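Session log. Operator J.P. requested a structure for one protein chain; no other inputs attached. Running the standard single-chain path with token output.
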Amino acid sequence: MVYDTVTSLNAAEVLARAKAFFSERVTSQAAFPEVEGPNYLVLRGQGGEEVVVSTFPADGATRVRGSTFLFDQALDRFLSTLPTPEESAA
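Structure written below.
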């Protein structure tokens, strides 16, 4: 499944938060970095399942796209923790 959101954070902050979230906050379904670049992160977890998080510039904000097969609930929860541009402006 593919998930999208927009955040006020930059790409490096999003990816750092993803690493921490999937290694520390989802202990029953932990996933750890396998491959990464400046705008993407591939995490590998239980049974070899992967979580992919990528970022794109989006009109003064950052668009975040996540994809997974097994970690749907955790990925959706992670994306919901990212501040939106509206929240940052307030």
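Operator note: The radius of gyration is 12 Å.
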